[in-house]
Amino acid sequence: MRTTRHTTRTLRIACATVAAALLATGCGRSDDSSTADAPTQISSGKAKGKLVMWSMGDKADKPLQELAKKFEQQNPDVSVRITAVPWDAAHEKLTTSIAGGNTPDMSLIGSTWMAEMASMNGFQATPASFESSAFFPGQWDTTKYKDTSYGVPFTADTSVIYYRTDITTKAGIKGAPAADWDGYLKDLKAIQAAAGKANPKLRHATQLQTGFNSWLFWLPLVWQQGGDIYDAGTKKFTFDSPEVTKALETYGDIFKDGLSPNDKTDSGQNFQNGLIGTVQQGASTGGNLHLNAPELDSKWKTMPLPQGEQAAGLAGGSDLAVFKDAKNADAAWKFVQFLTDAKNLAEYADATGNLPAVVQSWSEGKLSENEDMEAFETQLKVTKAPPAITTWQQVADTIDSELEKLAYGKATVAETQKTLQSKATSIGTGR
């Protein structure tokens, strides 16, 4: 039973949003991926030699460095060197190093980069000793390219609904808003009806993302309807499906009905200021609220995303990968094992605020004491990964562009759907 409402750490959004912003199609040193390669076997015994890892971020990841020291203590003959690589330079640095065959042994990789870099023959296949069942299914799927895993999930990321209880209560909603989309939309309309009346500061019931990275928030709508935008079996896009129609209608109607602004203001700040009653965001929003407005601690809660035909959410975050050209691959895989040990990853999550991708880590650390994290754990159990195609970011950029037109009333649902199918088909799936 979770009794502690807040932790004092700042919960950060993991790498999915950043990775989505940075991903671009690259070219590799080989025209073929290494999908035919057998998984690497990890030797018995302790790690030895020099191990070089890249970690994404503008400065050294101290909790990761501390875990590296612990690894060195357990493996006296190994030396771990971790180099920080800024996110805004990471994609180019990674693809350039893969193309040139001049990589470190391992790296943290934004989950939306995995397919692209695996297609460049950049990574070793994941050893069979890693059990997919230890990880949230959607997180494990982020490591796959052509049905082969090329890494191990490390940090997870997904979004949930935050709601202001002081606002929802005045709108006549008892407890959490409805857990299904039909009921949730009715509750949003009830919240909107209270704007400027029972809730004087309130302007909109919610705030959906528009433009940049709006695909992160819209794609789960499709999955919740039981559909998808891509059929891996036929390798064809399915934006022309009835489920996509429903997802576009839901997204567009929220703006058309005035339930969400389309002015691209900061939704987290608007939520904090009481200008909106609900918002779909990642874990960092809760940490920022507690840090910046602790007086609101008793006035907001979290819940999983509303369900349609099924529950679903987006799996983002970061994975650990060992490069094809690693000089010390055995030590690298042993370090990956160490970092994704449930207790070690829980320790890392407690120190950084990142969400662990290992299921057992949620019962090992302080996350189990934070009731606001229950919704994230629930959501992670039903998340899905975006299509594992090398052109994904181009497709995602197209979704962002067309959703923005829909949000501004510059395109109808039918026009948006037709354009998405046409443009995605033209972009193709890459390698």
Strand order of the largest sheet: 2-1-3-13-6-14
CATH topology of the largest domain: D-Maltodextrin-Binding Protein, domain 2
Examine the secondary-structure arrangement and name the CATH architecture of the largest domain.
3-Layer(aba) Sandwich
Q: Which strand-content bin applies to the residues?
A: 5-15%
Uncertain stretches = 1-36
Structural domain count: 2
Structural class estimated from helices and strands: alpha+beta
Helix content: 25-40%
CATH homologous superfamily label of the largest domain: Periplasmic binding protein-like II
Beta strands, count: 15
How confident is the prediction overall: mean pLDDT? 91
The CATH class of the largest domain, by name, is Alpha Beta
Radius of gyration: 22 Å
Q: What is the overall shape?
A: globular
Biggest beta-sheet profile? 6 strands, mixed
Report the span from N to C terminus: 47 Å
Number of helices: 16
Give a verbal description of the structure.
- This protein is an alpha+beta fold and about 425 residues long.
- It has two domains: about 15-160 and about 315-385, 3-Layer(aba) Sandwich (D-Maltodextrin-Binding Protein, domain 2); about 160-315 and about 390-425, Periplasmic binding protein-like II (D-Maltodextrin-Binding Protein, domain 2), CATH 3.40.190.
- Helix content is about 40%, strand content about 15%.
- The protein contains 16 helices and 15 strands.
- The protein has helices at about 15-20, 60-75, 85-100, 115-120, 135-140, 165-170, 180-195, 215-225, 240-255, 265-270, 285-290, 330-340, 340-350, 375-380, 390-405, 415-425; strands spanning about 50-55, 80-85, 105-110, 145, 150, 150-155, 160-165, 230, 235, 280, 300-305, 315, 315-320, 355, 385.
- The protein is globular and about 70 Å long.
- The termini are far apart.
- Mean pLDDT is about 90; it is low at about 1-35.
